[in-house]
């Protein structure tokens, strides 16, 4: 009985070996700017999001996000200051931990997603501040109102994933929502809102 169990276990181990050998041991993306290749990339919606943070009535830090952004980036690693970025953010994609709040945020007294279905960031200049950092100035449009913002941007990694060249960045900025006509709940809910933009860009090999 013991011998049979041992033989069975050994058999399973031998069958599993080829599968285990195929599992990668390192991620495809590496934080090495030398892996960035020139070209025009598109946003990978499934691996990108815009997160916002607010203080919830003085009790807790509350977060939500906009999923499935789209857009593009043109970059040349030999001239990163000439990079161009445009990101479109679907207002219908707003998500929190409360479904009723999601619907309220889409309503007219917040983002009015039916009338203004998309927010947009479009870069106007890029200032390289370090080997993996830059300040990207541009225009943010929300509810039909356009205001200048600066994104503090960090290169995350580059490599090949699923046959596509991929580059990832994180960026942060802070906006006053009242500047864009989103004034509901002020001052109980703060006017100043930190944003974090995490985006993966990809292009065919």
From TrEMBL:
SMART domains: YceI. It comes from the Bacteria. Residues 40-202 form the Lipid/polyisoprenoid-binding YceI-like domain. It holds the Pfam family YceI. InterPro entries: Lipid/polyisoprenoid-bd_YceI, TTHA0802/YceI-like_sf. Keywords: Signal. The keyword Signal applies. Coiled coil: none annotated. PANTHER family: PROTEIN YCEI. This is YceI family protein.
